[in-house]
């Protein structure tokens, strides 16, 4: 059943002003690039935090005695809230409703499908609900390799259209981009065209960040040539300590920064806004100008300056 910590403060740069509540732990989608644990690639059964509603009510009651409920609340963080598992979507519905009724704005990131049963709730609170639908690739071969258990791209696009009709803000979460695999011009152009046709006008994106287990997972799951290509892209990069026992490795700036410049140019050509994920780019972005995947409606973008650093510029 689980006994989750309730209402924990997010440690992600993109969501530093948010609180997080997790109705489950674990994920059946098993994406190879998942940063939250090497066993996530296995079709393991998640654990439902069945007491999360009771715990959430207690936490809010305690906070109400001291301060207002969180202004911005993310439902789930290391576990997709719309996995096809047990009554997870029903539990998430209750949590979302409790949060909205308490006055919080709700943020949801998913590769899954939002059920039709959410329509009444989402229509009633559309302005306070923000959904990011994640897409790795529209290439069925790449999708089968890296995110084999997720709903088909066409299903996710259909879900996006439905959410937009309900009055919900929907953005696309692209990636993680992998050099020479999913960051080519033709691949990005196709992806953006499909997203725009579904009604999406704003996206966030980031390149792959290796965790200490990621290469192990990919080596066991990918064709040898593809694994070697990914491994070689990070050659010469050192592991960086991020938290207790957490190691991360970032792509060289010579690969990552031109890739982002290409992405921004293609998004502009497609008439779409593009945010760069600060969580995936801490090494090259000054703290004062880090962007956020969950930023305000007014668009902000990055450009690569003469010194090779990502710099902020206005979208207008």
So how many helices? 9
How far apart, in Å, are the first and last alpha carbons?
Answer: 50 Å
Q: Structural class, judged by helices and strands?
A: alpha/beta
Beta-strand residue percentage: 15-25%
- Tell me the major beta sheet: 8 strands, mixed
H and E string? EEEEHEHEHEHHEHEEHHEEHEEE
Helix % is 25-40%
The gross shape turns out to be globular
Give Rg in angstroms: 19 Å
Ranges with pLDDT <50 over ≥5 residues? 284-290, 297-316
Q: What is the average of the pLDDT values?
A: 83
Count of distinct strands: 15
In short:
This protein is α/β, with parallel strands linked by helices and 316 residues long. It is built from nine helices and 15 strands. The protein is globular and about 55 Å long.
């Amino acid at each position: 059943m689980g006994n989750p910590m309730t209402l924990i403060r997010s440690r992600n740069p993109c969501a530093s002003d948010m609180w997080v509540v997790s109705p489950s732990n674990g994920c059946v989608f098993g994406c190879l690039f998942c940063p939250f644990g090497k066993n996530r690639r296995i079709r393991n059964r998640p654990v439902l935090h069945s007491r999360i509603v009771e715990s959430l009510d207690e936490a809010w009651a305690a906070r109400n005695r001291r301060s207002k409920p969180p202004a911005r609340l993310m439902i789930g963080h290391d576990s997709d809230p719309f996995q096809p598992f047990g009554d997870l979507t029903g539990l998430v519905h209750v949590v979302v409703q409790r949060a909205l009724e308490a006055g919080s704005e709700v943020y949801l990131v998913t590769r899954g499908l939002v059920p039709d049963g959410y329509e009444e709730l989402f229509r009633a609170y559309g302005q306070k609900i923000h959904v990011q639908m994640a897409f790795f690739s529209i290439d069925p071969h790449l999708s089968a390799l890296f995110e084999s258990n997720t709903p088909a791209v066409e299903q996710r696009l259909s879900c996006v259209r439905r959410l937009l009709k309900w009055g919900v803000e929907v953005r696309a979460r692209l990636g993680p981009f992998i050099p020479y695999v999913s960051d080519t011009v033709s691949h990005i152009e196709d992806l953006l065209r499909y997203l725009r046709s579904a009604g999406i006008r704003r996206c966030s994106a980031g390149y792959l960040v290796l965790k200490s287990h990621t290469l192990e997972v990919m080596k066991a799951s990918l064709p040898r040539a593809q694994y070697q290509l990914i491994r070689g892209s990070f050659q010469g990069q050192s592991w960086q300590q991020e938290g207790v026992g957490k190691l991360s490795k970032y792509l060289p700036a010579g690969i990552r920064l031109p890739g982002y410049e290409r992405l921004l140019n293609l998004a502009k050509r497609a008439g779409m806004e593009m945010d760069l994920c600060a969580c995936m780019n801490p090494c090259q972005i000054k703290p004062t100008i880090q962007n956020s995947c969950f930023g305000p409606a007014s668009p902000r973008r990055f450009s690569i300056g003469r010194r090779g650093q990502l710099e902020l510029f206005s979208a207008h």
